[in-house]
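To illustrate the input format used throughout this study, we show a single complete record. The first block contains the structure-token representation of the backbone; no residue identities are included at this stage. The design step must infer an amino acid for every position from geometry alone.
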């Protein structure tokens, strides 16, 4: 148990050490000073909260802060998030970031951990850098629109819509707590670029993507159908190209699938091959099905004859059997899923677009650039496969850990 006399008498040693007080609080003694700390668990994780530096913060004040933090925990709120909001809002100024973090601290416990990490990541990457310092009551419609347009311009249309929703929820919280008069996001209805149409239905919520991947792993239908479902999210090519995948187009040495997409075969002016880097997880799927179809032409032959590729209806009907309606997920939806989440992971727009085989500009000049950004695309495809594994296995997922900046 700490006392004022004990705190005064303890001296630093060659290594930092702790003097416990109780209820999770202790004094950390280092050569640089004496620090009050609190250890606690939140959502199954061990965390530490700084309570102050002695003598600026005395024992009595440290214990008061400890009690306040424990009260937040009792209400299901992470005291670290409250501290962030308070540090931003020291002078009582109701900035967008301060109110946003306060809203997040209150709401996050009602969400799944993966969703909470996605929300705070969107706030910190897309909203706070431009809106964070503005008073909530002074934020204007043009200011919010400018931020959302910036997100759209990098190709993350779905993310722009999600950020608009988050922004609106923060502003509604500000109104409810008497710090703003109204939610300006109401005036942005119909202004943003539309998201994918219904026939491109796709799952883009990370937690739900993990659920879909687990459903695919547990699919009890034919091996060919299960394997095509397992490969679809990893390579995210057009459904027709995936169904017609041929063994002679796979380079096992370079770990690449090189082919001319069906869309280009109909256009002689655009004969470019598409290079699809194959992550280790993709190669694993191909090895799984090789004993069954490896002596034929198609990787995924028809269930009736190996002379034709698998029918498009096989993938769609399998998704329905797993409980996904046409409004939730389609074969093409795997492309939307990849594009949306890769943009959220901050992979360069040009790299994603090239891998998605979205042709822009002069098709003739593009014919000689089929290997453009290939090193980045190889890194991206492996990082994407690792990210999908983390979602499927429900392990702790930090989007930044799979981004291009840390590869």
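Output of the design step:
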């Amino acid at each position: 148990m700490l006392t004022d006399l004990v705190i005064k008498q303890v001296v630093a040693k060659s290594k930092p050490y702790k003097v416990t007080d109780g209820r999770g609080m202790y004094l950390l003694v280092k050569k640089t000073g004496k620090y009050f700390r609190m250890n606690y668990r939140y959502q199954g994780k061990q965390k530490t909260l700084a309570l102050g530096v002695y003598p600026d913060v005395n024992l009595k004040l440290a214990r008061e802060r400890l009690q306040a933090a424990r009260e937040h925990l009792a209400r299901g709120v992470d005291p670290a998030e409250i501290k962030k909001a308070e540090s931003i809002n020291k002078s009582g100024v109701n900035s967008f970031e301060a109110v946003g973090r306060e809203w997040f601290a209150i709401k996050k416990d009602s969400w799944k951990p993966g969703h909470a990490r996605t929300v705070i990541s969107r706030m910190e990457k897309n909203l706070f850098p431009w809106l964070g310092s503005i008073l909530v009551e002074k934020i204007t419609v043009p200011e919010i629109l400018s931020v959302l347009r910036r997100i759209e311009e990098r190709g993350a249309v779905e993310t722009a819509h999600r950020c608009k929703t988050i922004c609106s929820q923060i502003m509604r919280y500000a109104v409810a707590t008497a710090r703003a008069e109204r939610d300006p996001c109401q005036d942005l209805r119909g202004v943003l670029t539309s998201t994918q149409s219904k026939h491109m239905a796709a799952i883009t919520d990370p937690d739900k993507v993990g659920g879909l991947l687990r459903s695919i792993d547990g699919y009890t239908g034919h091996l060919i159908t299960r394997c095509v479902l397992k490969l679809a999210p990893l390579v995210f090519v057009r459904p027709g190209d995936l169904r017609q995948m041929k063994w002679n187009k796979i380079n096992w040495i370079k770990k690449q699938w090189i082919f001319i997409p069906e869309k280009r075969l109909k256009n002689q002016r655009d004969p470019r091959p598409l290079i699809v880097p194959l992550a280790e997880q993709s190669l694993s799927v191909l090895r799984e099905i090789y004993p069954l179809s490896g002596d034929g032409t198609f990787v995924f032959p028809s269930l009736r004859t190996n002379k034709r590729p698998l029918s498009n209806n096989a993938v769609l009907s399998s998704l329905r059997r797993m409980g996904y309606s046409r409004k939730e997920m389609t074969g093409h939806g795997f492309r939307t899923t990849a594009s949306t989440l890769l943009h959220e992971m901050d992979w360069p727009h040009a790299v994603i677009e090239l891998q998605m085989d979205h042709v822009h500009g002069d098709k003739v000049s593009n014919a000689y650039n089929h290997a453009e950004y290939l090193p980045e695309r190889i890194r991206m495809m492996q990082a994407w496969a690792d990210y999908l594994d983390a979602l499927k296995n429900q392990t702790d997922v930090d989007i930044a850990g799979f981004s291009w900046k840390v590869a």
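Structural context for interpreting the output: The domain at 96-195 is CATH 1.10.150.130 (DNA polymerase; domain 1). The first strand starts at residue 17 and ends at 22.
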